[in-house]
Amino acid sequence: MSSLMYLRILPILPEHWPPVRQIYREGIATGNATFETEIPAWEKWDRNHHSHCRLVAVEKTKAATVLGFAALSPVSSRHVYRGVAEVSVYVAASARGRGVGKALLEALISESEKNGIWTLQAGIFPENTASIALHKSCGFQEIGIRRRIGKLGEKWRDVVLLERRSRLVGN
User: Fold this and answer.
1) Under 8 Å CB-to-CB from 88, ≥6 apart: which residues?
2) What is the CATH number of domain 7-120?
3) How confident is the model at residue 2 (pLDDT cuts 50, 70, 90)?
């Protein structure tokens, strides 16, 4: 799936959870990746994400280090929104700037279309300019800013809403 020679993109398995959890912890620590402040147990994370379209980027070495992950969450339980999903992409701090996020997002888009997803959406803090640029480079368009949509700690935060409509599914 990946165009980077040193990466393999694989489905997330329960045994990937410890490094995925650590990468998620690093994202939370930035203060610009998510409104979440605590890492859920595997069971809760597993329940809140689609069973398909959850990927890890693994370095092709003996250690097979997990460098990042991407997953989709349903936006609604209503049948009419079955083909709409929320994107999450996280890259280990040590692997940022090496194309891992792009490889994951491109693979996630491909997997989403194989699984009947016609619209992907992402809500990103405006300060997370690298993530916004990554999504735009993969065909997402900015559709607006949700002003003061939620509080992180005591601070109200805006979220840039981006969307990508499939050219293959739902047309």
Assistant:
1) 49, 69, 70, 71, 72, 73
2) 3.40.630.30
3) very low
